[in-house]
Design brief:
It is a single chain. The chain has 182 residues and is an alpha+beta fold. The chain has seven helices and four strands, in the order H-H-H-H-H-H-E-E-H-E-E. Strands 1-2-4-3 form a four-stranded antiparallel sheet. Helix 1 packs across helix 2.
């Protein structure tokens, strides 16, 4: 993952829990001090170690930390740093999700070795939708839950995740979210 992810995680912990909690997370994680250079690619293990340390220091399951971080990513990091890209990608939650792969394609040239997840939206009818999340990485589905919650807040929707199920894949993960959007 990129340093901008690690930096945003650091920012979230500092803003919500204070600098001293961040220092505890950082020390416990044992990650190198240069793990926060925005455009630099780091082994995914660096981010996972930061999340694991945050879980321990904050006394919350790693899944909850990832969900909180996903929401923070949308409402703070993305809106602050990538507002024009977000605006160009849609004016509603479903439109944004339908264009998310194209957004990732646009920024692929900016980041070396960038491997974004894929999203697909199916709308069988009414307010019910299926959102497919496919990633080469494992363990980030809770982050996506946070992203969905953050996006629903950003676009002024109520989002209910009725079901979340993993689809077996050879590597990474594929999660289908059954949601109701109003």
């Amino acid at each position: 993952m990129y340093g901008l992810i690690n930096k945003a995680l650091r920012d979230m912990i500092c803003e919500r829990f204070g600098e001293s909690k961040w220092q505890s997370v950082f020390e416990l994680s044992g990650v190198p001090e240069d793990s926060f250079l925005t455009m630099r690619s780091y082994d995914d293990d660096v981010t996972y170690r930061l999340v694991g340390a945050a879980s321990e220091v904050l006394g919350a399951p790693a899944e909850d930390c990832l969900e909180m971080f996903g929401e923070y990513w949308v409402l703070e990091t993305a809106l602050r740093s990538y507002a024009s890209l977000m605006e160009a990608s849609g004016t509603s939650l479903l439109e944004f999700l339908a264009n998310l792969n194209a957004l990732h394609d646009r920024i692929t040239g900016t980041f070396l070795n960038y491997v974004p997840p894929e999203f697909r939206v199916e709308s069988p009818g009414g307010n019910e939708h299926r959102i497919h999340y496919v990633s080469q990485r494992q363990g980030l589905t809770p982050f996506v839950v946070g992203l969905l919650n953050g996006l629903s807040q950003h676009f002024g929707n109520e989002l209910e995740i009725r079901e979340q199920r993993a689809v077996p894949v050879e590597s990474g993960e594929h999660t289908i979210f059954e949601v109701v959007l109003s």
